[in-house]
Every structure is written in structure tokens, then in C-alpha cells.
Automatic annotation (TrEMBL), chain A:
Keywords: 4Fe-4S, Flavoprotein, FMN, Iron, Iron-sulfur, Metal-binding, NAD, Quinone, Translocase. PROSITE patterns: COMPLEX1_51K_1 (PS00644), COMPLEX1_51K_2 (PS00645). This is Unannotated protein. Gene3D superfamilies: 3.10.20.600, 6.10.250.1450, NADH-ubiquinone oxidoreductase 51kDa subunit, NADH-ubiquinone oxidoreductase 51kDa subunit, iron-sulphur binding domain. Belongs to the complex I 51 kDa subunit family. It catalyses: a quinone + NADH + 5 H(+)(in) = a quinol + NAD(+) + 4 H(+)(out).
From TrEMBL, chain B:
Belongs to the complex I 24 kDa subunit family. Its cofactor is [2Fe-2S] cluster. The keyword Iron applies. GO terms for molecular function: 2 iron, 2 sulfur cluster binding; metal ion binding; NADH dehydrogenase activity. The keyword Metal-binding applies. It comes from freshwater metagenome. This is Unannotated protein.
Length: 433, 225
């Protein structure tokens, strides 16, 4: 399958991040045509395109917009989820640094469609350079009359606020994000009510991922049928894949949904010299790992679900045979333990318990009994936690055990570092100082 | 350092951006760090006063988020990503080298108060592993040697550029950017590198592209233009 740069098409133009650069390639043309249409017809185009959310869950975007009640007399809000903190996910931050106006134009069109007069872009605080690029783009758009009062002479007005988080993975969960954006500790809310009905300030709110919104100008400009030329019936469109790990050319590869990992791996130059694939993860540490036999599956929402995993953020992490899966999984669990917001018992206690056991394995002190006990604890967390972070925390270990049970058994007597020289998986020669 | 009237004005400016002022609390706490080098008691009280909430409420929020510190951070904040991908691909060695160079462990200031070292989680830059940050600006693709060199250059007061971002300023300046992101530095340094262009370059070399025109309306039509 060929690569299809769309959001990434002009990233080599050094001034794409500026208003002039973006407009040279037709930028803000979609906005002009959108504002001539009825908001409902914009929602219909997005529905017809079949676009699915790129934040991980793949929820149909047009349908989400359609849930917002109309003529309810309440203010509506658009919130862009730019909290990208999922381990392995590294595509939203690059989009914001390279092509921030695509996001801003998408925000304006989406706000018009859902009849919002206030939009917020919640960017994780640890990435000031994405923050300043987006803020700069918003200011330039404002100066050009695309943001503010009576945009392009219409009666549509919009304020956009670029907001920095302060370091908390859980704030990527949409309701935790809303609490955080309201100035509270970022802990998830009970659903229902869903944000489309009672979101920010208890008003109807649409929350979308950066990449989802960055798709919008292209869909409005080129049409729903255009998007459906890419991908599959259930997974239309293209995806900004970010391939990381032990490949020769890690980086951003934009391709239609349905490309296989083998093809992406090939574009990325293959595995580094002399090494073979051990395991890979299609989209963030929260989705189950796969191995060599899955390389020819199409990267779509449905095919990944069929293989017992998920497309997730569509940012494959690739690990070669030098990596200790025990160590990899332990590190992910340490992350979930650290990021658990503490609101519910299964996740707060379970992540501590699992991590404690895994750390013993990493040091070669696990017990055979605990190999299965950890699975048991995972089943007590999954489906019993307040939000999807708990489910995510219960994911890496059972998936790894499926393929690498022997390695966990070996970790009952031999430490991860003795089983696998850590230096061998470094990307630089030796531990050179 | 102190909470000045000018700072409180900036806080009120932030509060005015939102339909409900309390939404400004996170940016306001970044502002406190830019002036005080940490989330100080005075800063907490000032936030509480501007927003009309209690200091306890502000404290409860500030303790939830890892970017807010309760000790002097010092001139530069140094982060090393130790999440699985970066850590196992070399971040662990980078962290060890920096910890030795600075003589401190995780989430601690160096004795001279110049640096703060922190093991950080995935920085959304895994394609650029191992990733380090200085005052939260990207330092991509580091090795133990280049990481230590960056710290040495900072210690000597030399100019250090982010790999995808502007020239390094200091922790306080970044904290201010987090409150007021329009810091005038969007044009400084390049934010796009070879790895971000990897797919685009291959597509160009091999003549691959996405059709930019709308799809033909009727899929049955066989007419070629
Ligand atoms: C723990 C956790 C972290 C999440 N982090 C993000 C994130 O950083 N960015 C994001 O877009 N979605 C994230 N999500 C998913 C959001 O809750 C939500 O589904 C998404 O923003 C919706 O946007 P979309 O429909 O455009 O995909 C996260 C979910 C969970 C449970
Ligand atoms: S599952 Fe974890 S992160 Fe989610 S609400 Fe419960 S404790 Fe918080
Ligand atoms: S794991 Fe280090 S940036 Fe993602």
C-alpha cells in the first residue's frame, strides 16, 4: 500500500506553521466553504465520511457531534484533547508543531458545526513547543479574521483558548480532562451523563483528539467520498502512523488505514541490522502486544480487534529480541501505578500490587505461583475500574504472558538484566560515556 | 522572588480568559512557578485570593500534578524519559549518567541549585528515543555522552538549542510560557526534523501521494478525463 501524506503533505515547507505558509497550500479554504453551509450539513459530511476518533477508542466523529442537543439554550463547547501522554503515542505533538493551522482550522469548523462559541485546546504541559506553535497559530488566525467576532462576515463568533496541563496522564481521559480544565484535580467523572449532554461547566461539550480535528479541513474541502477512498468500510481514511523502536528509520508515516505492519516496517527501513522482531504494539501501551505472525494484518479498528488487540493511537512501538519483555511490562506497570488517579480501589491498589510482584520478577525473585496470580489481579481490575486507565493497566501483562510465559518463569530465578544484557537494546553503541 | 502586584494582574488576565475563572488555576500555578521557582505558600494564597476559593482547594489541586514542585527547582529542569521505549533503548543509561554528573536522584535539585533532575514519563516523542528535556524543550536522540555535554554547556552558560524548538532559556521562562504560550518564540529553531518527515520523503521519492481532488461522484462511471 502506498503512503498518502495529507495532514503531513507539506511538512517539508519550513513556514507551514505560519498563516502564510498554510494558506499557500489552500489553508482556510475549507473554513470559507463551511461557513456558507448549514452547521447540520457539516455534521452530515463528517458522518458520511465515516471518520473515527483518533484518540484511541475510534468512536465515529460525526455521530459524536450529532449527540449535542440543539436549540437547548445552553452554551456549547469544543475541547481538543491534546494531552498525548500514552506511552508510545507520538503523533499529536508533531502535528501541532508542524501543522498547527490544520488543527486551528478544524477547531473553527467543528465549533461552527456543533454551535460552540468557545473552544479549548488542552495541551499537556510538558511540551511548551507544541503549546507556543498552536497559540501562535490561533493568534495569526485571529488577526486574519478567522477567530473572534463575526468570522468572515458571518454571525458566527468563536473564542479559542490554548490551555496547558501540568503533568498527569489521566487528564487525557476525557472527563478527567474536563475536571482539570475546570481547575480541579483531574479525576474521571461518572458517565452518563456523557459530555455531549453535560460536559464542561455541565454544558454540552464535544471532546476530540488533535488528529481527529486536523482531519476536518481536508474532509470539508474534498468531501466524504474522498475520505472513503482510503481505508476500509469500517475504518475509512488515512492515519498519521508514528513508528518507534528498533527500526532503522523511526518516524512519521501517513498511510491509509488498512496498511499492514509489515509494510510500515518496510517503509521504516526494517529492523535494525542483524536483529529480528520480538514483539510490537499497534497503538500505545494500553493495547495488547502482537508478534511476528500478526505483521500481515491490516491496521484497522476491526482487524486489530479481531486479533485481540486495538488500533489505539496507531503509533506502533517495535522491539527486537534484545529486549526483556519482563522489564518492558514492569516499566509500563510502574507507569500506570504512578498515573493512577487513586479514585477507585481496583486500579489504585491493583496497580501497586501488580507492580510490586513484577519488580520481583525483574530482579529474578518472582515465584511460579505469582505468574498466574498477576493474571488474577489483572482480571480483578479490568472491567471493575472506574475508567479505562484501570483496564489499560490490566492489559500488558496477560498479553505478554500469552507469548512469553517462559521468560516470566525464567524470572523466578534469573533477573531480566542477566537474561538480556540491557546494553544490547540501546540505540547507541555500548554504554559509551 | 515574590508575588508582585504585576503577577496578580497576570493572574487576573488568565482568569478572564475563561467562562468560569477557576479554569485558570493550572496556568496560574505555572505562573507562580515562573515567579517563585516552586509552588510557594504565597503563590497558593495569591491564586486563592484571585479566584475567591480557599488556599486548601488550591493546594489540593497543586499536589495532584507532577509539574508543580514544592521545592526550588533551580535554573534548569532536566527530564529524562524512562518509560519503556526510551528507557530500554538507552534512556536508563542517560539517566544514570546525568544522575552521576549532577550527584542527585529522581525529582531532586542539585547541590548548587542550578539543576533539577527528574525521571519523566513518555514525552510523546518516542520516535526520537532516547528523549531528554531541558526546561521541557526537546533534546531528542541523546546518548549518555551528549546528555552530559548538554548539562556541561548549560553549566558554563553556553547557548544550547533545543532539537525541536527554541534556544534554551530557563525553567522560570518556560513556566511563564505555560501560562502565556504566545511567547514570541514560535519562529525560533525548527520544529520539524528528518524523523517527522520520514514518510513524506519516501512518498516524494517514489511518487506516492493521496488524491487531492474530490472522488468521482458515481463509482460506476468509467470515463477517464
Ligand atoms: C487514561 C486515558 C488517557 C487518554 N489519553 C488521551 C489523550 O492523551 N489524547 C486523546 O485524544 N485521547 C485520550 N484518551 C481518550 C479520550 O478519553 C477520548 O476518548 C478521546 O479524546 C476522544 O477523541 P476522539 O473521539 O477524537 O478519539 C485517553 C483515555 C484514557 C482512558
Ligand atoms: S481506574 Fe484508575 S485512573 Fe481511572 S478512576 Fe479508577 S483509580 Fe482513577
Ligand atoms: S517513551 Fe520516551 S518519549 Fe515516548
Amino acid at each position: 500500500m502506498t503512503l498518502t501524506p495529507v495532514i503531513t503533505e507539506h511538512w517539508d515547507a519550513p513556514d507551514l506553521y505560519t498563516l502564510e505558509g498554510y494558506r499557500r497550500f489552500g489553508g482556510y479554504g475549507a473554513l470559507a466553504s463551511a461557513l456558507k453551509q448549514d452547521p447540520d450539513s457539516i455534521i452530515q459530511v463528517v458522518k458520511d465520511s465515516g471518520l473515527r476518533g483518533r484518540g484511541g477508542a475510534g468512536f465515529p466523529t460525526g455521530m459524536k457531534w450529532g449527540f449535542v442537543p440543539q436549540n437547548d439554550g445552553k452554551p456549547h463547547y469544543l475541547v481538543v484533547n491534546a494531552d498525548e501522554s500514552e506511552p508510545g503515542a507520538c503523533k499529536d505533538i508533531p502535528i501541532m508543531m508542524a501543522n498547527p493551522h490544520a488543527l486551528v482550522e478544524g477547531v473553527i469548523i467543528a465549533s461552527y458545526a456543533i454551535r460552540a462559541s468557545h473552544a479549548f485546546i488542552y495541551i499537556r504541559g510538558e511540551v511548551p513547543n507544541a503549546l507556543r506553535k498552536v497559540a501562535n497559530a490561533v493568534e495569526q488566525a485571529r488577526a486574519a479574521g478567522f477567530v473572534g467576532s463575526n468570522i468572515l462576515g458571518t454571525d458566527f463568533s468563536l473564542e479559542i483558548v490554548v490551555h496547558a496541563g501540568a503533568g498527569a496522564y489521566i487528564c487525557g481521559e476525557e472527563t478527567a480532562l474536563l475536571d482539570s480544565l475546570e481547575g480541579y484535580r483531574g479525576q474521571p467523572r461518572l458517565k452518563p451523563p456523557f459530555p455531549a449532554v453535560a460536559g464542561l461547566y455541565a454544558s454540552p461539550t464535544v471532546i476530540n483528539n488533535v488528529e481527529t480535528i486536523a482531519n476536518i479541513p481536508y474532509i470539508i474541502e474534498r468531501g466524504a467520498a474522498w475520505l472513503r477512498q482510503f481505508g476500509t468500510e469500517k475504518s475509512p481514511g488515512f492515519k498519521v502512523f508514528a513508528v518507534s523502536g528498533h527500526v532503522k528509520r523511526p518516524g512519521i508515516y501517513e498511510a491509509p488505514l488498512g496498511i499492514t505492519m509489515r509494510e510500515l516496517l518496510d517503509y521504516a527501513g526494517g529492523m535494525r541490522d542483524g536483529r529480528t522482531l520480538k514483539f510490537w504494539i499497534p497503538g500505545g501501551s494500553s493495547v495488547p502486544m502482537l508478534v511476528e505472525e500478526h505483521l500481515d494484518l491490516p491496521l484497522t479498528y476491526e482487524d486489530m480487534a479481531g486479533a485481540g488487540t486495538m488500533l489505539g493511537t496507531g503509533t506502533p512501538m517495535v522491539f527486537d529480541e534484545t529486549v526483556s519483555v519482563v522489564k518492558a511490562v514492569t516499566r509500563w506497570l510502574e507507569f500506570y501505578k504512578h498515573e493512577s488517579c487513586g479514585k477507585c480501589t481496583p486500579c489504585r491498589e491493583g496497580t501497586y500490587w501488580i507492580t510490586g510482584m513484577l519488580e520481583k520478577f525483574e530482579h529474578g525473585h518472582g515465584s511460579v505461583e505469582e505468574v498466574d496470580k498477576i493474571v488474577h489481579v489483572c482480571t480483578q481490575i479490568a472491567g471493575r475500574s472506574f475508567c479505562a486507565l484501570g483496564d489499560a493497566a490490566a492489559t500488558p501483562y496477560p498479553a505478554a504472558l500469552k507469548y512469553f510465559r517462559d521468560e516470566f518463569l525464567a524470572a523466578t530465578h534469573t533477573s531480566a538484566d542477566e537474561q538480556f544484557d540491557p546494553v544490547a537494546s540501546y540505540l547507541f553503541a555500548g554504554a559509551a560515556r | 522572588m515574590a508575588i508582585t502586584e504585576a503577577l496578580c494582574d497576570e493572574m487576573r488576565q488568565l482568569a478572564a480568559l475563561y467562562p468560569q475563572s477557576r479554569s485558570a488555576l493550572l496556568p496560574m500555578l505555572h505562573l507562580v512557578q515562573s515567579a517563585e521557582g516552586e509552588v510557594s505558600i504565597d503563590g497558593i494564597n495569591a491564586c486563592a485570593e484571585v479566584l475567591g476559593i480557599t488556599s486548601a482547594e488550591v493546594t489540593a489541586v497543586s499536589t495532584f500534578y507532577t509539574m508543580y514542585k514544592r521545592k526550588q527547582v533551580g535554573k534548569h529542569h532536566i527530564g529524562v524519559c524512562i518509560n519503556t521505549l526510551c528507557g530500554l533503548l538507552g534512556g536508563d543509561a542517560v539517566y544514570a549518567a546525568l544522575s552521576e554528573r549532577l550527584g542527585v536522584g529522581h525529582d531532586q535539585p542539585s547541590a548548587d541549585g542550578e539543576f533539577w533532575l527528574e525521571r519523566i514519563e513518555c514525552q510523546a516523542a518516542c520516535t526520537h528515543a532516547p528523549v531528554m528535556t531541558v526546561d521541557w524543550e526537546f533534546m531528542d536522540d541523546v546518548t549518555p555522552a551528549t546528555a552530559v555535554d548538554i548539562v556541561d554547556r548549560l553549566a558554563r552558560g553556553e547557548v544550547v538549542e533545543s532539537t525541536r524548538g527554541p534556544i534554551i532559556r530557563d525553567f522560570a521562562a518556560t513556566a511563564h510560557t505555560l501560562a502565556f504560550p504566545n511567547d514570541g518564540l514560535a519562529d525560533q529553531g525548527s520544529s520539524v526534523d528528518d524523523k517527522m518527515l520520514a514518510g513524506l520523503m519516501i512518498a516524494k521519492e517514489r511518487g506516492m501521494s493521496a488524491p487531492s481532488a474530490p472522488a468521482p461522484a458515481a463509482p460506476t462511471s468509467q470515463t477517464e478525463g
